[in-house]
Amino acid sequence: MYILGEYFLQSILKLLRPHQYIKNLFVFAPLFFTFSFNFEQIVDCIVVFILFSFLASSIYILNDYMDIEEDRQHPKKKFRPIASGEVSKNSAKILFFVLSIPSLIASYFINIDLSHDSLADLEKILEYAENYDVVVGKREKKVQSFFESISSKIFYKTISLFTGIKIDSMYSDFFVINRKVINFITKNEDRVKFLKLLKFNNGFSKYEYSYMPLGKKSNKRTFFENINFTIDVLVNYSHRLIRMATILSLSTAIINLFYIVYIFGIYLFKDNVAQGWTSSNIYNSTIYFVLFLVLAVIGEYVRMIMQNQKNSPMYEITDEKSSVALFSDKKNIDKE
Known about the structure:
Elements: H1 8-16, H2 29-34, H3 39-66, H4 68-73, H5 81-84, H6 89-105, E1 108-111, H7 119-129, E2 134-139, H8 146-163, E3 171-178, H9 179-187, E4 206-211, H10 223-237, H11 240-269, H12 277-310
Helix pairs in contact: 3-6, 8-10, 11-12
């Protein structure tokens, strides 16, 4: 490779194949067909054209990189920049990431800790991202201390007990999601706190990528942050806590009801009852009975709302312009 040589720029341009960018001019077609030439739409088309061009060049680089051995045996293809050695493999990889990542930003979100996860694994995980909505990094081994291992087990057991969701403790925060999942998360902001609790199989295709992390994470939560995080997860995702609170409230209401009966029994069958004891206790017990009964009813309604919302589809029909699948035997369709 000629880093500062006169042929280096020519080799890079030859590798990028900019003459192929003319194919991406089709993104400007809507402007001419709709006769809409406002500034924002023109800027959007220019940005899309640039992203498409970057993506096209990155694909050419990837193909040349993958076919390097075959190209070296070919009478014509052996003169390609990577096959001929004008551009080294490392330079091609760097150029590939520089061009592909900006174009992927529009379609993918990547969460990576460079001190914990390697770029080589990112390269592989992006290959699976083309066929799956979610690609999650699954650690082959955890690098943890004894205390961290115990607290981690307690955390996952607690989550499983109260939410009913079994989480693989080997899942990492290294993941890639596509635009479909990004849109779903942004429209459901309360679910962003703990991505692992999202039911990926509920409309999302998922792939578990096994890898070995480089080392410990660069940003670890403290013990108190983990406690606060656990509480947030339980409150946001578990309706079993509300059911427990409902049962506790209902039990307390029933105990107060029995205590009211006991007070009446003492008043009717026992002499020398202190003046005002019966009325004050009946008043307090009645207030507590009504209060906890109302809390139990409200808690059950809240639990049902949360459960129904959890099982709702991941889309909303805001308007229907037309349909090609309407049949007269369906409901709300007039046969006449």
